[in-house]
Sequence to fold (468 residues):
Amino acid sequence: MPYTTVHAVFGRLYAGLPDLGCGIPWEDVHRVGPRAPLSCPDCEGAMSAVLRGGTRFVAHNGKRPGDCRLENESFVHHMTKLVLLGAIRDAGWHAELEVSAPDKSWRADVMATSPDGSQRMAWEAQLSPITIDHIKERTDRYAEAGIRVCWVSPHEQAPKWIDEVPAVQALAPEAGGDWSVNDGVAAFSWSFGAWGVRVTPMPEFVRWALEGQVEPVVSLRRYHRVKRRMDGRVRVLRRGMWWTSASSARLQTEHEAMRRCQEEKKRVAEEARLAAQAEIERVRQEEAAREGARRAAEVEEINRRSRQLEAERHARWLEERAQQVARRERERAEAEERLLREEAEEAGRVLRAEEASRAWWSSLSAEQVQEFFGAVAARARQEQQIQLRIPEELYTELRYGHGAPLITTDGYVYGVARPCPEVAVPSHTFRQVRVFVRNRTEANRLGDLECKELVVLDLPEHEQLHFG
Fold:
C-alpha cells in the first residue's frame, strides 16, 4: 500500500510520520470536508487518506491507473524507509521520501541532502529480489548524477549483492530500541591482518555515512575471508566491500604493503637459501662425478676380468656341451638300435605266436570248434546260469596266449578257451580267469598253468563219425 502523497499546499506528505513530514496532524487530511487536495506523486491522480486496522496510508480514488508506477510497498519496506528518514534528520540533514530524477532514470526511497545543499545521498531499502547486474546498473545511475548511495536490506540473511555495491544489512529491534547494522560495516585489525564485522546502531551508521566518516572500501582479495561468530558457531564470510573508516582503509593498505614487503624478504631469503643449496649441490655433484669416474674405472676393470673369466668358463662349457651332445648322440643311436632290435624280436615273437596259434587251432575241424564252444556254453548255463556269446567266427587274442575269450551276454570275460601252449604270456594273465580245454591231453600240454580254474571238458581226440 502507498504511504506517500502530494498535498496541494503543504507538498509531499508521509502517512507513517506523526506530523506527516510537514508539521500538520493526520486529522487535517483524514475524513475532512471538503476532501483534502491529495494527489499521486507519479500519475497525479486524486488520492485519499485511509486508516485501516490502526495503519495509516493513502490510496487512489478509484482504481489505480495502469501506467502509474507508484508501488504498493510492504509494511517492512515502509518502516525501513521511516527509520532511515528519522536517522538522516537526526544527523542534521534534510530527508525526503520517494525522490525521482527529472528524467525518471532513478527514484530514491529516501534522499538525504546536506544542510548547505551541496551533497546528496540516496538510501534504498531493497527487499524484493534483484540481480547483481541490475543493482550495479542502478548504482551507476546515481554515480552519474553525482549522488552517493547506500543499499539497505532488512532481511535476516545478508543478500548476495551486499559486497557488490555500497550496502548494509539492517536488523530491526525485537522490542523497542534502535535499528542496527548487522552486516556491511567492518574495521581492519592490524594484529589479526583481517576485517572484523562491527554491529553498529543504525542512526550512528547513517550519521557516519553522511559525514564521510565511513565509506565503501574494496576489500583486497587476500582479506575477503572474514570469520564471524553467529548462532554460537564461527562462520566464514566472503566480502569484497565494506563500509569502513579511512583509518581502516589505510590499515588494510599498509598491512598489504607490509605483507608484500615480508613476502619480498622471504622471497629474497629463499632465493639466497636456494642459491646456497645450489652451490652446495654443485660441489657435491662435482665430487660425486669424480668419485663416480673412479668407481666406473674400478667397475670397468672388474667387468673386464669378469668377461675374461666368463669367456674361459664359456669355452669350457662349450667343450663339455659338445662332449655331452656326442655322448647323447651315441646313447640315442644305441637306444634306437636296441629298440629296432626289440621291435624285430617282438615282431618275430608275434609271428611265431600267430603261426603256433594257427597250427594249434587248425588241428581242430570247424565242427570240433563248434562242439567245443557248445560244450563250454552248456556248462556255463548248467553250473553258473550264465549265457555266453558264441562267436560265428573264431577270434583269439595274443594277451590270452591266442586263446579265444569267452564273453558273457553282459559283456564281461567268463573265461578263455584253449590258450596255445607255445605262446608265452605273463604268469598272472590267467590268475583270475577260467581256462577251458577239450580234454586231458590239451591240459597236459599247458603244463603248470596258473589260472582261476582249469576246466577239462573230456571231448574226444578226433572228430566222431556218424553213419546214417
